[in-house]
Design brief:
474 residues; alpha/beta; Rossmann fold; six-stranded mixed β-sheet; 18 strands; 30% helix; ATP-binding; nucleotide-binding
């Protein structure tokens, strides 16, 4: 039984509830975690408060969360008339989300820790509190909750129970993450073609089908069938046992090329249909290195900015998390500071610039300057309070964003703006962020089925045979 205890357990006796001891990193990761433990009680050691105090200064996300956690605790404590020693009921402050109690450490605890554990260290003092509570309440489960793996290992080595914080995870298993595509079974038309309507409109064929599978379909989900009567379509309407499928524009054919780029596989074709559709405001593209996420997105963006004039400019941003050692402060303007992080943009522009025809060296240089004038590189740090109108906003390396940062960015979109999030959830560099709790996973899961959003997981690498083999064997 995890922290997501079933509602039925509320009716059980009070002795069945657990006592969760919170490590500082849980509060700094999710300041609302105090209200996420349902009917169970929480215990906050004095060392946790000390560490919150030590981390509250600054403008970083961690400092902001530390301040918010402290404010939440202050509201809970000041709004209660109960004796802090007996615990403070969370029912009212959490507006019914939690029915347990919050206990703050009100006494000095002296526990003999093993000699190898220095008591000056904050983590070890928290472990001492957990040991004391486990001895004091032998019949009650006392569990340490921490995002720090080593802290959990140390707790278990001392015979204490420890858990990760689960409530920030959108999915326990990322294999269950929505892929945006579905292969239709071979007998699909036999079971769904009865009373089917079909019509043509604007160069596309539409099918209104009824049958058992249609209840599982989501709006803007792509369906395909290989073989003799191959089909690639997407779901435009879904209601009960009825769904409307629309055939796609074939971007793998050169006559439909986007800035000289054609789709090299089925998923890339699906992605270009999302990127080029004006009714889709939010697109998420997942895929490992070399699947073409950035190239397809830039090609679609440039076509719609410079040719069809649907958007006024491309804005590109990404999280600046270094993979190796940080190279220190960078000189110049915001755009110049971001330039080293935007190597992927430059590489892809070189490819796209090579597809613009026989303009010669001068023609290519002029095209490069024109393209560069329409692409703005922005830092995430200055996004709050901004509104982008008629822009093509690309968020690269979105797997390194927390759900809160993702919300901050997506809510920047004003009228006529399209937001595209790119990322690979197998390459997360942000500490304490996992595949299940990444902002990109969060966005994919929450936006699925919304009529103005679409998602594709790109499967096949198209970079080179070397890159594909390296991705498999290394």
């Amino acid at each position: 039984m995890t922290q997501r205890a079933s509602r039925s357990t509320r009716s059980k006796s009070k002795s069945a509830t657990k006592l969760f001891v919170l490590d500082t990193n849980v509060l700094m990761h999710d300041p609302t975690s105090l209200f996420r433990f349902e009917e169970h009680d929480l215990y906050v050691p004095i060392m946790t408060l000390e560490e919150l105090d030590a981390n509250k200064k600054g403008m970083s996300e961690v400092a902001r969360n530390a301040r918010q956690a402290s404010r939440t605790m202050d509201e809970i404590v000041t709004s209660s008339l109960e004796d802090m020693h007996d615990g403070i009921a969370l029912e009212e402050p959490s507006r019914g989300l939690a029915s347990g109690k919050l206990f703050l450490q009100t006494e000095a605890i002296n526990v003999e820790l093993p000699a190898a554990l220095p008591t000056a260290k904050g983590d070890n003092q928290i472990l001492a509190v957990v040991m004391h509570l486990a001895e004091r309440f032998p019949k009650r489960p006392v569990i340490l909750v921490s995002k720090d793996i080593n802290m959990r290992i140390k707790a278990r080595a001392l015979g204490l129970e420890a858990q990760d914080y689960f409530n920030d995870k959108v999915l326990e298993d990322t294999d269950l993450l929505y892929t945006g595509t579905r292969e239709l079974p071979a007998d699909f038309w036999d079971t769904h073609a009865k009373g089917m309507e079909s019509w043509k409109e604007e160069g596309h064929t539409w099918y209104r089908v009824k049958g058992p599978l249609t209840t599982d379909l989501l709006i803007n989900e792509f369906v395909y069938q290989d073989g003799e009567n191959a089909l690639q379509a997407w779901v435009t309407e879904q209601s009960g046992r009825t769904a409307v499928l629309q055939t796609l524009t074939d971007y793998s054919h050169h006559k439909n090329n986007i800035w000289g780029i054609t789709a090299r596989n089925r998923e890339q074709n699906f992605a270009l249909n999302l990127l080029m559709n004006p009714n889709i405001d939010f697109v998420t593209l997942l895929g490992q290195a070399g699947t073409g996420k950035t190239l397809l997105t830039l090609a679609a963006g440039l076509t719609q900015v410079l040719e069809t004039k649907r958007y006024s400019e491309i804005i590109m941003t990404r999280v600046t998390v270094p993979v190796g050692e940080d190279i220190g402060f960078l000189p110049g303007t915001e755009e110049e500071k971001m330039a080293p992080w935007m190597g992927a943009l430059e590489d892809n522009l070189d490819v796209l610039n090579g597809t613009t025809g026989e303009g010669g060296e001068w023609g290519r240089a002029a095209t490069r300057d024109l393209i560069r004038s329409r692409i703005k590189i922005k830092s995430l740090n200055f996004m709050r309070g901004r509104t982008f109108i008629n822009k093509f906003l690309i968020i690269d390396e979105a797997q390194n964003l927390t759900p809160k940062q993702m919300k901050t960015l997506i809510t920047r979109a004003g009228p006529g703006t399209k937001v595209v999030c790119l990322g690979n959830i197998a390459q997360i560099d942000t500490p304490y962020l996992t595949e299940g709790s990444s902002g990109l996973t969060f966005a994919v899961d929450r936006f699925k089925g919304w009529p103005h959003s679409g998602h594709i997981t790109l499967q096949r690498g198209e970079r080179s045979r070397l890159a594909d083999h390296a991705a498999e064997v290394l």
